[in-house]
UniProtKB/TrEMBL annotation:
SMART domains: AAA, NIL. This is ATP-binding cassette domain-containing protein. Transmembrane segments: none annotated. Residues 2-241 form the ABC transporter domain. Homodimer. Forms a membrane-associated complex with FtsX. PANTHER family: AMINO ACID IMPORT ATP-BINDING PROTEIN, METHIONINE IMPORT ATP-BINDING PROTEIN METN. It comes from Arthrobacter crusticola. GO terms for cellular component: plasma membrane.
Length: 335
């Protein structure tokens, strides 16, 4: 597992101190995928450098499988890094080497016997779906294929942790999904613990089990995807289940509704309309599958239904809210 505790990294710039990381803490259980998301300048790159000991943190600790990496001696850093496989935005392959040659490079550095090395390279290229491209040079490969070679190379040292730094930001949408699905498959097959640094929420939606939102060097929200997506008051739910632009004026009271998995199953809106004699207007909605569970977020407007010949009954909003919550729907009064 990965445990980061109160990690701080400060730099001197001119006459002032810049806190690139300001007490970052997170935990990634073994065999899960955790996404760290944030805009440019949030501290993501500094976090990567501290996790791989390219930069020593000012304070705090980074633990991999119970070993505190921030306490290792400089002479032991290279050995400690072997626990971590790195996948970068660009594969950074050596143009003069074939796909097999690039994957073999880490094995050559530890002087693995040739027969073992060749067998391992073949196995790794098979794992990433490139068994037939062993003799191809990077210039002969697509962007997605080069990234697959980079992933195979990252696995060469049998790491327990895979650290992915913007692994798909240079790829088209279809190839992005293929690479993300491959990372998910490898994590499940090999029992890898994966940390993905990204600025793309679609990466988090597709494969992550948990997520941390990083802003100005601080974690401002984090948790399992099911939990952060199930809270209408959270910041991350706005990005995980965004509502399209809409106009809610003139619709009466407005409610935000959230259902997850089996909660609120059935025709919630039509039942609400019948039970309380309401006109229910769906103003906006979003449906996503997150961590294998379907989430639905809706914004609805309510107005008493009335016949032309009779006045409408006053709307008992508290009763409506209580009824929805009893059905397992998360409800907030938006307006």
């Amino acid at each position: 597992m990965i445990t980061v505790t109160e990690l701080r990294k400060s730099y001197r710039q001119g006459g002032r101190t810049i806190d690139a990381l300001d007490g970052v803490s997170l935990e990634v259980p073994r065999g899960t995928i955790h996404g760290v998301i944030g805009h440019s300048g949030a501290g993501k790159s500094t976090l990567v450098r501290c996790l791989t000991l390219l930069d020593r943190p000012t304070s705090g600790s980074v633990s991999i499988d119970g070993r505190d990496l921030t306490s290792v001696k400089d002479s032991e850093v290279r050995s400690a890094r072997r626990r971590i496989g790195m996948v970068f935005q660009h594969a950074n392959l050596l143009d003069s080497r074939t796909a097999a040659g690039n994957v073999a490079l880490p094995l050559e550095l530890v002087r693995l016997p040739k027969s073992e090395k060749d067998a391992k390279v073949a196995r790794l290229l098979g794992l990433v779906g490139l068994a037939e491209f062993a003799d191809a040079y990077p210039s002969q490969l697509s962007g997605g294929q080069r990234q697959r070679v980079g992933i195979a190379r990252a696995l060469a040292a049998d790491p327990t942790v895979l650290l992915c730094d913007e692994p798909t930001s240079a790829l088209d949408p279809a190839t992005t999904n293929e690479i993300l699905d491959l990372i998910r498959e490898l994590a499940d097959t090999l029992g890898l613990t994966v940390l993905i640094i990204t600025h793309e929420m679609n990466v988090v939606k597709r494969i992550c089990d948990s997520v941390s939102l990083l802003e100005k060097g601080r974690v401002v929200e984090q948790g399992p995807l099911r939990e952060v997506a199930g809270s209408l008051n959270g910041r991350l739910v706005q990005a995980l289940l965004p509502l399209p632009p809409h106009n809610s004026s003139g619709t009466g009271p407005v409610l935000d509704l959230l259902t997850a998995g089996g909660s609120g199953s059935g025709p919630v809106l039509s039942e609400l309309a019948r039970r309380f004699s309401l006109d229910v207007t769906l103003l906006a909605g979003s449906v996503e599958t997150l961590a294998g569970e379907q989430f639905s977020r809706m914004r609805v407007g309510l107005a008493p239904a009335s016949e032309d010949t009779a006045p409408a009954e006053p709307l008992e909003l508290n009763e409506v809210v209580s009824h929805l919550r009893a059905r397992g729907v998360t409800v907030e009064v938006a307006a």
